[in-house]
């Protein structure tokens, strides 16, 4: 795989459970995987149907969870949207719940792109002996 990838990621049903126009609960390992992608210098674009207030809410939700995107609904931050061109963006990989065959789990995505075992959630101690 290339050293640095541009990865376009959908929001509803992909980063969070689908509850549009509300914001669903984060999917397990979604934010951990996106953070690791960014740590590995990949450019992560939020590519979503959302616009206006709903888009602003999604971007703020991600920022609250430690993610600031390279670009939002465009190929690069300085891009001026021009209706005479296709809205399709330039990305190496698209991560979307509408993939044919469904979406892989974020653990599988983590392993495939980053090439190591997925992050582990901290275990919750239940008592003196971790029961």
Could you explain the architecture of this structure?
With 131 residues, the protein is of the alpha/beta class. It has a single domain (6-114), classed as HAD superfamily/HAD-like (Rossmann fold, 3-Layer(aba) Sandwich), CATH 3.40.50.1000. It is built from 3 helices and 4 strands. The protein has a 4-stranded parallel beta sheet, covered by helices on one side. The mean pLDDT is 86.
Reconstruct the topology from this structure:
Layout: E1 6-9, H1 30-39, E2 43-46, H2 52-64, E3 71-72, E4 93-95, H3 106-114
Parallel strand pairs: 1-2, 1-4, 2-3
The count of DSSP E runs of length 2 or more, i.e. the number of strands, is 4
Q: Strands of the largest sheet, in order across it?
A: 3-2-1-4
Percent helix, as a range, is: 10-25%
The CATH class turns out to be Alpha Beta
Largest sheet at a glance? Answer: 4 strands, parallel
Which shape, going by the Cα principal axes?
globular
- At the fourth level of CATH, the homologous superfamily is HAD superfamily/HAD-like
Q: Structural class of the secondary structure composition?
A: alpha/beta
Q: Distance N terminus to C terminus?
A: 42 Å
By CATH, the architecture is named: 3-Layer(aba) Sandwich
**How many H/I helical runs?**
3
Task: Report the order of strands and helices.
Answer: EHEHEEH
The proportion of residues in beta strands is 5-15%
Low-pLDDT segments: none
Query: What is the name of the CATH topology?
Result: Rossmann fold
- How much is the radius of gyration in Å? 16 Å
**Overall average pLDDT:** 86
Q: Into how many domains do the coordinates divide?
A: 1
């Amino acid at each position: 795989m290339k050293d640095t990838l541009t990865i376009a990621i959908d929001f509803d049903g992909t980063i969070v459970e689908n509850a549009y126009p509300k914001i669903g609960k984060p999917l397990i390992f979604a934010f951990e995987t996106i953070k690791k992608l960014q740590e590995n210098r990949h450019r992560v674009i939020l590519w979503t149907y959302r616009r206006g207030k709903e888009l602003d809410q999604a971007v703020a939700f991600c920022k609250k969870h430690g993610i600031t995107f390279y670009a939002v609904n465009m190929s690069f931050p300085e891009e001026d949207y021009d209706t005479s061109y296709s809205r399709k963006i330039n990305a190496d990989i698209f991560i979307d719940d509408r993939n044919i065959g469904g979406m892989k789990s974020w653990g599988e995505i983590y392993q495939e792109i980053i090439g190591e075992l997925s992050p582990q959630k901290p275990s919750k101690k239940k008592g003196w002996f971790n029961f």
